[in-house]
Amino acid sequence: MALGFSAATLTGTSQLALSAGPIAAQSQIADVEDAASYDLFDPTERRAASELTASERLIEAMIEEEGVRYDVYRDVAGYPTVGVGHLLLPEDNLRVGDTISHERAMDFLESDIAKAEDIVVRLVGDLPINQHEFDALVDLAFNVGEGTLSADESPRLNRAIEAADYDRIADELNYTTAGNRVAKGLVYRSERRQRIFMASDYSDPREV
């Protein structure tokens, strides 16, 4: 999948392991080329979600948003987390304070993005989407999980998808709370996600 290239570009980050805080992705990613050069199709052409994978531009943006942590910490909602926003699972056999290798962090990221891609395929069904719309939805699925995107939890998003109303879908990409509190980082991330969906703009809104 597309992630293989992105993960390879991050091999230089291992010396930064055990950092006490999220590591800025800009200091880790060396000359990731624009994803369009790897596309074998017109990225603006809408097609079945099952034909798409997360682009390099999205993966770079997600790493910028999440940072990379090699020590297990609690995120803003209090959940044990490691790597690039990977929420710990029982089978990970890790706990707060443990550390992991760079390679394992990248394995977690690859697996989590694959899961997010599958969630988007199920979420949109037959709705055709283009690359940047798919990317924005992958970021959303990665960030909030499938349960939050269910018809019960996100009825307006699901209705917008059923109606093939792309403008309304963009309006529903705004998820800004963690632990029942508005998190400033999620406000920026939601803005970035909406820009990706509407205009293929992957830039960080904090820099504007």
The count of helical stretches stands at 7
N-to-C order of helices and strands: HHEEEHHHHEEH
Sheet of most strands:
3 strands, antiparallel
Say what the CATH topology is: Lysozyme
Oligomer: single chain
Q: Which percent band covers the strand fraction? A: 5-15%
Distance between the termini: 32 Å
Any idea what the CATH architecture is?
Orthogonal Bundle
Radius of gyration: 16 Å
Helix-strand makeup class? mainly alpha
What is the CATH class designation? Answer: Mainly Alpha
How would you characterize this protein structure?
The protein is built from 7 helices and 5 strands. With 208 residues, the chain is mainly alpha-helical. It has a single domain, classed as Lysozyme (Orthogonal Bundle), CATH 1.10.530.40. It has a 3-stranded antiparallel β-sheet. Strands 4-5 form a two-stranded antiparallel sheet. Strand 4 (177-178) and strand 5 form a beta hairpin. The longest helix is centred in the middle third of the chain and has 23 residues, at 102-124. The radius of gyration is 16 Å and the shape is globular. Residues 1-39 have low confidence and may be disordered.
Summarize it.
The chain is mainly alpha-helical and 208 residues long. It has one domain (3-207): Lysozyme. It has helices at residues 3-9, 56-66, 102-124, 131-144, 155-162, 166-171, 184-199, and strands at 69-74, 80-83, 86-87, 177-178, 181-182.
Q: Mind sketching the topology for me?
A:
Layout: H1 3-9, H2 56-66, E1 69-74, E2 80-83, E3 86-87, H3 102-124, H4 131-144, H5 155-162, H6 166-171, E4 177-178, E5 181-182, H7 184-199
Antiparallel strand pairs: 1-2, 2-3, 4-5
Helix pairs in contact: 3-4, 4-7
